[in-house]
Specification:
The protein has eight helices and ten strands. The protein is an alpha/beta fold and about 250 residues long. The chain has a domain of about 150 residues: 3-Layer(aba) Sandwich (Rossmann fold), CATH 3.40.50.
């Protein structure tokens, strides 16, 4: 699905203090495109996701999905929040079907759909395990499966690999590319890591410090799999890092 964010402004008022989180934020993601947002902490990245999911309303501007204005409308995109925890008292199988369960789908049907995807998500054999029995990487894949099973054509992933060690992170990046290439959802991705951004994305958007707006848009035209030691890769990476660091 094609997603457009048009001139969006979002302010918060807390204890009489007004914070402009986003000001005139405009960008788009084509159907099947992998678009990454990077920006300093507090630049409004998570705020942008909350607006796109419809959990909050913009003060100004529009969120458009496949040509339809969806301001404040929930249930149209799949969302993985920044700290998406599994429920420790539920098995992996019961964790990943939560979305379907809440939306009233029959459990047996939800299980069936989940079971088909367990191998692809590297969770086969752990259907009835509890989250505490899984490695960090597996827990993150389970949280991604839960998001994936929401079944929308657009996935919003807010720093999904932020807390992982470098090696696990590398594995999950490659694995996510495989899932994306197979199903081609539109992906909006947030990261702090410019290397990760260049490795995964079709397009990278750099946000300014608060109030966030797009400072730089860079298309990454390198074929997959990408070589992070190539001259082109390193050039793009340092260009993004420079944009991120200058005030
Ligand atoms: P990022 O994800 O880029 O780190 P956020 O979107 O979380 O940034 O936050 C952007 C700014 O908006 C921050 O200054 C944050 O404190 C503020 N903010 C976010 N959500 C709220 C809220 N619900 N109430 C008040 N201020 C908020
Ligand atoms: Mg955030």
């Amino acid at each position: 699905m094609k997603l457009e964010v048009q001139s969006v402004r979002k302010t918060f008022v807390e204890n009489g203090q007004t914070t402009i989180a986003l000001d005139d934020l405009t960008f788009s993601a084509d159907a099947g495109e992998f678009v990454t947002l990077i920006g300093p902490s507090g630049s409004g990245k998570s705020t942008a996701f909350n607006l796109i999911t419809g959990l909050t309303m913009p003060d100004q501007g529009n969120i458009i999905l496949d040509g339809q204005r969806i301001n404040g409308r929930t249930g149209l995109v799949s969302y993985m929040p920044q700290r998406d925890l599994l429920l420790p008292w539920r098995t992996i199988r019961d964790n990943v079907i939560i979305g379907a369960e809440i939306s009233g789908q029959a459990r047996s049907k939800a299980y069936q759909r989940a079971e088909e995807l367990f191998p692809l998500f590297g969770l086969e054999g752990f259907e009835k395990a509890y989250p505490s029995a899984l490695s960090g990487g597996m827990r993150q894949r389970a949280a991604l499966l839960r998001t994936f099973l929401l079944g929308k054509g657009t996935m919003l992933l807010d720093e999904p690999f932020g807390a992982l060690d470098a090696l696990t992170r590398y594995d999950l990046q490659q694995w996510l590319l495989g899932v994306w290439e197979r199903f081609k959802p539109t992906i909006l991705f947030i990261t702090h890591d410019v290397r990760e951004a260049v490795l995964l994305s079709d397009k990278v958007l750099v946000l300014t410090p608060r109030p966030g707006k797009i400072k730089l848009e860079v298309r990454i035209d390198l074929p997959q799999p990408r070589d992070d030691s190539s001259v082109e890769f390193i050039k793009l990476q340092s260009m993004l890092l420079k944009a991120l660091q200058e005030r």
